[in-house]
Write a structure and sequence with these properties.
Layout lengths: L1 H13 L4 H7 L2 H8 L2 H19 L4 H5 L8 E4 L15 H16 L3 E6 L7 E4 L5 E4 L11 E2 L9 E6 L2 E12 L2 E7 L7 H4 L10 H21 L6 E5 L5 H14 L3 H8 L3 E4 L10 E2 L1 H15 L3 H6 L12 E2 H8 L2 E4 L2 H10 L15 E2 L6 H4 L2 H11 L2 H4 L4 H4 L7 H29 L4 H6 L9 E6 L15 H8 L6 E6 L7 H14 L8 E4 L4 H10 L2 E4 L11 H7 L3 E5 L2 H6 L5 E4 L8 H25 L8 H14 L5 H23 L5 H16 L4 E7 L10 E9 L8 E10 L5 E8 L1 E7 L2 E9 L7 E9 L14 E2 L3
Parallel strand pairs: 1-2, 1-9, 2-8, 9-10, 10-13, 13-14, 15-16, 15-18, 16-17, 18-19, 19-20
Antiparallel strand pairs: 3-4, 5-7, 6-7, 7-8, 11-12, 21-22, 22-26, 23-24, 23-27, 25-26, 27-28
Helix pairs in contact: 6-28, 8-9, 9-10, 10-29, 19-23
Length: about 800
């Protein structure tokens, strides 16, 4: 980036960091001059050498972790990828996370490819009309002036794949964006062979109606799977980032059936271990649901050829297979057909298990097979140049290479307070300058008067406490919570001795009028004389705006309704820049927060009355600003430094940066999911697929025989009081019918009992077969102790399926509990 800035810094910014377009636009004489400049050529040689060394991928984290005898190829599917400003194929956090995932996979050397769609118009550009109402405009992406390469065969013919839609086939060609060591393959249906309506399938991200959505997801999931095979790639693991690509699970099964002659159930057993699903949405309305007749129209021939009936196919996407009125949900499809599922924060894991627990009846909520891997961010992409230099000086080069190493970030305490604060002040000054410039441009585009445009030069102060709120304008994010009491807010912002200013940015979905209404409300308030110089809304929120805010603000504000923010990553980017978080305890902040690193709004309360909740949390927000945040910022030492604030900045950097990084996140995915899933998949497909066939046959027999399984009786050698730490024994007589003892696991389930008589935080203890007493029955025994915590405890016994090739016993849907 520095090399391109050296050529023409202004043009680099104007082209949104697009090297291809920049080199096509730059004055030829400037290129010729640079080609004779020894300093520039030396810089070019250094960059080229560094890039070659990076791409050689020697001694990467993955090479050190992986078994040399094992192979791994991961395919990461996502509907959007936020890799760089100029490649407009992302809308927000989901896409930025996907882009950061690829970047960290590249840095770590994880063998991964990305798969998505190449949108002709991408996501919309935002502007506001005179009334302050959001308007949308779309700009065509010129693929030939973007950092993209059309994938062609040796004879020069583009690689293409075909998917079937009702009454016709649709063709997609494949482009590649190279993200470091990672290829990102993108499908494009805008080619002459397709009908005009089908050329528009890859037109807009999240555009069109529900039928356009299913067409896009067929191209992404089924077309994406076929694209990888067209390119000669046969991944061991498929990672579905949200449910948009879930149809790939069906295509994986169909491919196994057609290529290896497997039955439907055999193909399912072979495919499931290789599929990983990450859910990002804790709100029901955020998941894709398709009417049954639409699914029938697009998949009737597809599922019939695979051997599904209409009922069994629709059941894959329904909570209640017998409810003919229930829509087909892509998240449910992904949950049913993936070997591993995860949420994106610890709290989101709890929310997701509660949200989808009906898919696994009889399974305790805490054991629902949805784990969590907390999101992170790619630091190199989000940290300012000045902070990078500061980290290089005080933390050493390891912070770039070993981001998740705790010992690196402990050195943050050594950063000179003067340097940290001066660095931060320069970035705030740059943010104020950037905001004024953007505001002037906005006013000119609206046709504002010259005097109004000139007034933009007076908004904000470079030295004032600056709060930023920038994110998607969905109603649950409550962008206007700060305005609950405008008079009180005015007193906070306009204190002449301790001024405060707030910068807002964000887009509402084109069809979300409620979200657009929030933006208009902010604009109306910002136009009031008492707020005119203190509140600014920046239009057309993009990564350039995000970086300026993340790097220059003092406080990052986040006010979602608790339990509705899956993770959030903007606050992580802010903390990496030394910006302090002020947030509701939701998503990542729920597990990150401690008093020394930022501020928490509320104490994890959830209210049935949302209006009352808004009132309570707005009061808490005002109180924090008045009593803690503002006083701390303006509490200056004799040297003019806010030393207590700086100390909090250092603690935030030290405690948060080591964990909330995509290097840690991708490493966790690799160790917990990718490598085990690949090993499992390779075992399932060995030879002529005997493990998959044997498992399918075993499951078929198990399903027929399981209804006879029951726990006949249970007994314990203590029926009243048991001293803490003392052993006690539980016995159970279990009738297995025609099943063998090694077909099941019998478990003692022990836990404390709440006021409603429900066991919570149950502990599983495997019971051993003590003796067979008659045909089909056996006595199982377990000895255990309650090691700590007195109170009321309860126990029961359950029977689960057991097989060495079973990914997870709960996914079978078979579980038998002892009768109460």
């Amino acid at each position: 980036m520095e090399l391109f800035r050296r050529l023409d810094d202004t043009l680099w910014e104007e082209t949104k960091h697009n090297p291809v377009r920049m080199l096509g636009m730059i004055d030829q004489r400037k290129l010729e001059t640079s080609a004779r400049d020894e300093g520039f050529l030396a810089h070019l040689d250094r960059v080229a050498a560094d890039l070659d060394l990076y791409l050689a991928a020697k001694g990467t984290w993955f090479q050190k972790k992986a078994d040399p005898g094992k192979t791994l190829q991961v395919a990461y599917f996502s509907a959007e990828f936020g890799v760089t400003e100029c490649l407009s194929i992302f809308a927000g956090g989901l896409g930025v996370l996907a882009g950061d995932h690829l970047k960290s996979a590249s840095d770590l050397g994880v063998p991964l490819v990305g798969l998505g769609l190449l949108y002709q118009e991408g996501y919309f550009r935002q502007y506001l009309n005179e009334a302050g109402w959001q308007q949308e405009t779309y700009e065509d992406n010129d693929f030939h002036t973007l950092p993209l390469t059309l994938q062609c065969r040796q004879d020069g013919v583009p690689h293409r794949v075909t998917v079937s839609l009702p009454g016709r086939d649709v063709v997609a060609q494949i482009w590649r964006a190279q993200v470091g060591r990672i290829p990102l393959y993108l499908l494009d249906t805008n080619i002459a062979e397709n009908e005009p309506a089908d050329r528009d399938i890859t037109d807009q991200l999240y555009g069109g109606d529900i039928e356009m959505r299913i067409k896009q997801e067929i191209v992404l999931g089924i077309g994406g799977y076929r694209a990888l095979r067209e390119l000669g790639l046969k991944p061991d693991v498929y990672h579905m980032n949200e449910g948009h690509s879930a149809f790939l699970s069906l295509e994986q099964m169909r491919q196994l059936m057609s290529t290896h002659g497997l039955t439907l159930e055999e193909a399912r057993e072979a495919a499931v271990p290789s599929l990983i699903f990450t859910t990002h949405t804790p709100v029901g309305a955020g998941h894709d649901y398709f009417p049954a007749d639409l699914i029938e129209r697009y998949f009737g021939g597809y599922y019939t050829a695979m051997g599904f009936t209409r009922k069994t196919f629709l059941a894959l996407g329904r909570q209640n297979a017998g409810d003919d009125g229930e829509k087909f949900c892509m998240t449910i499809l992904a949950l049913r057909l993936s070997g591993h599922s995860n949420a994106v924060s610890q709290l989101h894991g709890e929310v997701s298990r509660n949200m989808w627990k009906d898919l696994w009846p009889g399974v305790p909520t805490e054991e629902i097979p949805i784990d969590h891997v907390t999101n992170g961010v790619h630091f190199q992409s989000w940290i300012s140049r000045e902070m990078k230099e500061l980290y290089d000086r005080y933390l050493g080069p390891r912070w770039r290479e070993e981001v998740a190493d705790q010992t690196v970030w402990k050195l943050a305490d050594n950063i000179a307070s003067t340097e940290l604060w001066r660095t931060h002040e320069r970035r705030r000054e740059r943010l104020v300058s950037f905001t004024r410039r953007r505001l002037r441009d906005q006013l000119k585009q609206r046709g504002a008067s010259q005097s109004a445009v000139e007034m933009a030069n007076d908004v904000l102060e470079p030295e004032a406490l600056t709060i930023a709120f920038a994110r998607r304008f969905a109603t649950y994010k409550r962008a206007t919570l700060l305005f609950r009491d405008p008079d009180r807010l005015a007193r906070i912002l306009n204190n002449p001795e301790r001024p405060v200013q707030v910068i807002f940015a964000g887009k509402a979905h084109p069809r979300d009028d409620a979200g657009k209404g929030l933006i208009k409300q902010i604009i109306d308030i910002a136009r009031q004389e008492r707020f005119r110089h203190r509140i600014v809304f920046l239009e057309d929120y993009d990564t350039a705006v995000a970086r300026s805010l993340l790097q220059g603000a003092d406080v990052w504000l986040n006010t979602p309704i608790r339990l509705q923010e899956a993770s959030g990553t903007s606050g992580m980017k802010a903390s990496a820049n030394g910006v302090l978080n002020l947030s509701i305890l939701d998503g990542w902040w729920d597990e990150a927060y401690t008093p020394e690193v930022g501020w928490a709004i509320g104490r994890r309360e959830v209210y049935a009355d949302t209006n009352y909740q808004d009132q309570v949390e707005a009061e808490a927000l005002y109180g924090l600003l008045e009593q803690e945040v503002v006083p701390l910022f303006y509490d200056r030492h004799r040297d003019g430094l806010p030393r207590k604030w700086i100390d909090r900045m250092k603690k935030s950097i030290r405690h948060l940066c080591r964990y909330f990084t995509t290097h840690r996140m991708v490493g966790e995915y690799t160790e917990r999911y990718y490598l085990p899933a690949a090993a499992y998949y390779q075992r399932m497909i060995q030879g002529t697929w005997p493990p998959a066939k044997a498992l399918a046959a075993w499951k078929a027999q198990l399903s027929m025989k399981w209804p006879h399984v029951r726990v006949v009786s249970t007994s314990a050698d203590h029926l009243s009081e048991v001293p803490v730490g003392a052993d006690f024994c539980v016995e159970a007589e279990v009738y297995l019918g025609e099943l063998r003892p090694n077909d099941v696991t019998v478990e003692l389930f022990l836990g404390s009992v709440d006021a409603n008589g429900e066991m919570k935080e149950g502990r599983r203890i495997v019971m051993g077969l003590e003796k067979s007493i008659r045909n089909g029955s056996g006595v199982y025994k377990a000895r255990t102790a309650i090691s700590s915590g007195s109170g009321l405890y309860g126990y029961t016994v359950r029977v689960l399926p057991h097989h060495p090739d079973l990914v997870d016993p709960f996914r079978s849907g078979l579980i038998t509990w002892a009768s109460v």
